[in-house]
Amino acid sequence: MKVNKSIKRICPLSANNSFFLFGARGTGKTTLIKYVPFLKNKLYIDLLDSDTEEMYSLRPQLLIEQANALPSGEWIIIDEVQKLPKLLDHVHKIIEEQGINFALTGSSSRKLKRGGANLLAGRAFSFSLFPFTAVELGKDFQLDTALQWGTLPGVLSLQSEKDKSRFLRTYTQTYLKEEILVEQLIRNLDPFRLFLPIAAQMNTQAINYSNIAKDTGVDYKTVQNYYQILVDTNLGFFLEPFGRSVRKVQKQSPKFYIFDMGVKRALERMLNVPLVPKTTDYGDAFESWFVNECFRLNYYYELDYKFSYLRTKNDVEVDLIIERPGKSQLLVEIKSAAIIDTRHIKNLIHFRKDFPDSEFICASRVKNRQIINGITILPWRDALYRIGLIPDYDISSSME
């Protein structure tokens, strides 16, 4: 498939208030900013351009002078604002004194926070952009493509698998060079290089910080910091263990999910290994993609759902527990099988007495809905709808 710029993103940008737009490199922030109707033909400052960065670095007053020529309520776009954090002092002043709105993009908020940058004291909203969702791609979405190569716009615009592999390898190298080295997020890069493929291999698994520390030659706290760097540079997120105790003894380590399957496979050097249905790797990829999809849609639609997982010390696990304000709690088992039987849902059955007021569903690749022992088995699209993550019009028109 080839993705074009006309695909509508569902990131809910504000047309009436200044905002930051964060997101990993290559998620389409610049394209979105350029094609949002209320930002068309506005003053655009690209700090990835070395000449532009130098110009504003030497004369940050230029921003104020340009703003002076604009009417109140007008917009200014600053792309990759973390390149010049000090500009935010001028942005703050312009918002306060002139009523100018700013659209500020960045691949990471970490440098801004660590450098004590002016984050505009709540005067700017904060949004995040992720790789394409199935909702955004609609009828063009292909599950196996998403599992094998991810859904970054740059990958989906390429036709050959060779080019997709090249793109993803370059992407991970660029991340190390531009996000870690240039931004000086860590002092010693070698242990972090060892950490990245391990983090990718442990994707969807409970984190064992001590074991990773031994494998990378650093201490426990450093490994925790490495994971936080991935979060701050938008390369993934934690899935915390379920907070309320049940009658079973629970494990308390969080899981970590890489934000894109293609990037995950590139980090662990698995791009040349095909994903085959009915294998463990395929099942893990499906789970990772589905959890990411839930995370993205919950964020975009501002639903305030809380996600967690539950696992006992006997390794009885529920993949996803979803607490929904004003709605019943959901326990979700995620299975990549196209045919589901009692074996696939035994963990949900196991926990039914512990959650008497909750709903239980299995998200899978089945073609049609079914019910086994009171557990509802759903195609993954229907599961997203049942969870409340897809509006009616999307599932009926865009995702047939």
SS-derived structural category: alpha/beta
Rg, please? Answer: 22 Å
What ranges have pLDDT less than 50 throughout 5 or more consecutive residues?
Answer: 393-400
Q: What percentage of the residues does DSSP assign to strands (E)?
A: 15-25%
Kindly state the number of beta strands: 13
Number of helices: 17
The arrangement of helices and strands along the chain is EHEHHEHEHEHHHHHHHEEHHEEEHEEEHH
> What form results from the Cα inertia axes?
globular
What does the largest sheet look like?
Answer: 8 strands, mixed
Mean pLDDT: 90
Helix amount, in percent?
Answer: 40-55%
User: What is the first-to-last residue Cα distance?
Assistant: 17 Å
Count of discrete structural domains: 2
Lateral strand order in the biggest sheet: 7-6-8-9-10-11-13-12
Description of the structure:
The chain contains 17 helices and 13 strands. Strand 9 (317-323) and strand 10 (330-334) form a beta hairpin. With 400 residues, the protein is an alpha/beta fold. Mean pLDDT is 90; it is low at 393-400. It has an 8-stranded mixed sheet, with helices on both faces. It has a 5-stranded parallel sheet with strand order 2-3-4-1-5, with helices on one face. It has helices at 29-35, 50-58, 61-68, 87-98, 110-114, 134-137, 143-149, 153-156, 161-181, 189-201, 209-216, 220-232, 261-267, 280-300, 346-351, 380-387, 392-398, and strands at residues 19-22, 43-46, 75-79, 101-106, 125-128, 236-241, 255-258, 306-311, 317-323, 330-334, 359-364, 370-372, 375-379.
